[in-house]
Q: What sequence folds into this?
């Protein structure tokens, strides 16, 4: 069945607005949004960690909501606005979260950082986190194997204006 | 991930037609479980039918004071909806106890009901599993079964249902609205999931070609006295070892009605009408809660590694009922258990 499907699989045209720029792609349907960003649009800021939705390194914003791009099929996102870590800064000025991660030394190896920052951007937009405990809970989908969690929480608090 | 064809359904009727015309096809909405299973080669659909754009995202008040929720409402939108927070906080709490913020943003209500077990042997295509490959055997029976079921098991399967949301829906007597080739029907959430029996590959009573269109909450939300307590190996973002949904209707300290459902213990949310009846008319005291726990856990059996769940469940039930009676529901962000 898989082989038969392969032979007749068509590439599907999709339109995305990625970091404010309209992009048209022709993709086989099993392309994840993560692979579309990294392999087809050369936006490698979004990281592939576990590729199973367990680590959060692939977190991007789709229509303003944080999602795991590894568990998202690109063809299903036709017409969506996608923001990756490359799209957070504007006119050479870092996003407040990016600046806060630097100020608070909120990363060590850095592999999880793009996902952490995009996830934190989603968290700020959602507006449900009011203190450090709620930040920790609502950031639990982003793992940091270096264990920089206290500084990540501090960075998010800084960006929130330290509640 | 296997190669597959892709269709976008234009409406519910179209989705049902596409399902009938494509044996081996699967519906996809949030995709959080299905795509993962496809990456593991556990699911190998010939075609994905994308239903994510269908107009199933409404919240509608029902004539009898309940709420009907479209099957494509994302889990996060459901948990944070003002009507859910106010009238059904048990449901909001259970949803927020599950998964991560990203996954809750993606996963749909209908998809949550359809998610499959996280039994490691179900995921491991190198091992026998009656759910993945009927008739091949159950590797969990004599394997690593610490996370597995203690109630309603069979010689074919001891997997658990992983959903938190479903546990609260079971306690709230929710209904599932279904559309299919033969028309529309409504079944109780407690009848939606199945026990494994000798057909553990069939998770639910959803028929061939059918699609979930909505869930419905009856008017009673038990918003005053409820709690959802989830016990797991880490503080967040892990599946339940044991979870308890408790809801009480109190008159002073006397119980007018009790609802009690367990997660992490069976192939479906576990309820016992006998346990709930035993609480009716009784004082809300630990002794009575403990007796109800015994009734709810009647028939519980352990394998080599999950015996701890029986006592853990007993204590969690008493604790959760106490939280509900005291109107101090478990916080899902501050995890100290009061």
A:
């Amino acid at each position: 069945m898989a082989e038969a499907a392969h032979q007749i699989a068509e590439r599907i045209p999709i339109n995305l607005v990625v970091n404010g720029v309209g992009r048209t792609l022709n993709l086989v349907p099993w392309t994840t949004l993560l692979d579309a960003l990294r392999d087809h649009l050369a936006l490698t800021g979004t990281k592939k960690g576990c590729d199973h939705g367990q680590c959060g390194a692939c977190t991007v914003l789709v229509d303003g909501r944080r999602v795991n791009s590894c568990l998202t099929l690109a063809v299903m996102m036709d017409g969506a606005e996608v923001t990756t870590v490359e799209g957070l800064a504007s006119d050479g000025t870092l996003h407040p979260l990016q600046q806060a991660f630097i100020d608070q030394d909120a990363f060590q190896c850095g592999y999880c950082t793009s996902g952490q920052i995009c996830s934190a951007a989603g968290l700020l937009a959602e507006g449900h986190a009011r203190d450090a405990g709620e930040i920790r809970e609502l950031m639990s989908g982003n793992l940091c194997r270096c264990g920089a969690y206290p500084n990540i929480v501090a960075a998010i608090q800084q960006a929130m204006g330290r509640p | 991930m296997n190669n597959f064809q892709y269709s976008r359904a234009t409406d519910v009727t179209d989705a049902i037609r596409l399902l009938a015309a494509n044996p081996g096809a699967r519906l996809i909405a949030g995709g959080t479980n299905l795509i993962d299973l496809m990456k593991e080669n556990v699911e190998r659909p010939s075609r994905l039918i994308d239903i994510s754009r269908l107009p199933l995202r409404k919240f509608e008040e029902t004539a009898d004071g309940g709420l009907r929720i479209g099957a494509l409402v994302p889990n996060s939108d459901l948990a944070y909806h003002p009507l859910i927070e106010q009238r059904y906080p048990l449901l909001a709490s259970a949803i927020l106890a599950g998964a991560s913020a990203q996954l809750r943003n993606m996963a749909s209500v209908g998809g949550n009901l359809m998610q499959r077990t996280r039994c490691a042997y179900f995921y491991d295509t190198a091992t026998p599993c009656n759910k993945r490959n009927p008739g091949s055997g159950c590797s969990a029976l004599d394997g690593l079964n610490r996370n597995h079921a203690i109630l309603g098991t069979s010689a074919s399967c001891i997997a658990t249902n992983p959903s938190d949301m479903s546990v609260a829906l079971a306690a709230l007597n929710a209904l599932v609205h279904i559309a299919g080739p033969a028309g529309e029907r409504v079944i109780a959430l407690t009848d939606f999931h199945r026990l494994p029996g000798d057909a553990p590959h069939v998770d639910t009573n959803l028929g061939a070609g059918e699609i979930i269109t909505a869930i419905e909450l009856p008017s009673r939300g038990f918003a005053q006295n409820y709690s959802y307590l989830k016990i797991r190996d880490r503080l967040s973002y892990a599946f339940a070892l044991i979870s308890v949904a408790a809801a009480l209707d109190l008159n002073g300290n006397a119980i007018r009605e009790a609802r009690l459902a367990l997660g992490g213990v069976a192939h479906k949310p576990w309820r016992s009408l006998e346990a709930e009846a035993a609480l009716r008319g009784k004082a809300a005291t630990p002794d009575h809660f403990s007796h109800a726990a015994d009734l709810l856990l009647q028939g519980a059996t352990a394998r080599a590694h999950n015996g701890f769940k029986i006592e853990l469940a007993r204590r969690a039930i008493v604790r959760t009922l106490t939280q509900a009676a005291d109107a101090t529901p478990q916080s899902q962000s501050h995890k100290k258990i009061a």
Summary: The CA atoms of residues 147 and 273 of chain B lie 25 Å apart. The two ends of chain B are 45 Å apart (CA to CA). Chain B touches chain A at residues 1-6, 24, 28, 31-32, 35-36, 38-39, 44, 46-48, 50, 52, 76, 80, 99-103, 105-106, 235-237, 332-334 (CB under 8 Å). The mean pLDDT of chain B is 97.
